[in-house]
Prior knowledge:
The chain has helices spanning about 1-30, 40-45, 50-85, 90-100, 105-115, 125-155, 160-170, 175-185, 185-200, 205-210, 215-225, 230-250. By secondary structure, the chain is mainly α. The relative contact order is 0.13.
Amino acid sequence: MKTSRLWAWITFGVGAAYFLLPLIATFEFSLRMRRGVYSFDAYRSVLGDPYFQATFFYSVLVAVFTILLGVLLVVPTAYWIRLRMPRFRPVVEFITLLPLVIPAIVIVFGYIRMFGSSSPLPFLASTRGADALLVIGYATLALPYMYRAVDTGLATIDVRTLTEAAQILGAGWTRIVIRVILPNVLIAVLSGAFLTFAIVIGEFTMASLLNRPAFGPYLQNIGANRAYEPSALAIIAFAITWGCMSIIQILSRFAPKSANQPR
């Protein structure tokens, strides 16, 4: 037992060092913008950059619309699959995994060919159309994470009993989804939402090829032209991502337990 515990701590220490040492080195380098002393000049330069503020808030706004679109698509679909078509679950799960298999560059080039200015649906002919296409693309990229989060949440509740009880009380399908199912899987939806937010904030390929002023292309551009600011941005992006992950962990404690889990 002592030997196995020792090896477990050694493995943990090696993994933590592999993960933390590059992060510490990046943070230390980001503080060396002022020669001879440590300072937060790189962070002040980045946070005070109007392009940083514009691109970051643009990506936040796109993330909000992406989350709304993902919830509107995934929650009713996952609910209906569990309630009426459980045999099709493997097919739907396979479809939701496709964005992990197909590279984003392939997806965005397909969008450009299908929705270009000369196509019957010229989304890219206007700014709002390109923004809408970017939201749709991000919803596609986030589909595996959002679907699995919602499907896991639905597994913790008795969907059939809740539906039958709501129908007995006279509720229609829309009210059942909004007033009964969604509140019961809200923690799972929020988990998928934070994962979607983290994906949107750091995504580069779609935003760049669709020529949108998003945060991902800004990260790449500043990394190609400056020395210390990219390190500061890397730390900021890391903090945002891990902030989302921490919120998911906190929210998961309030998730309802399934009947098979000990209470």
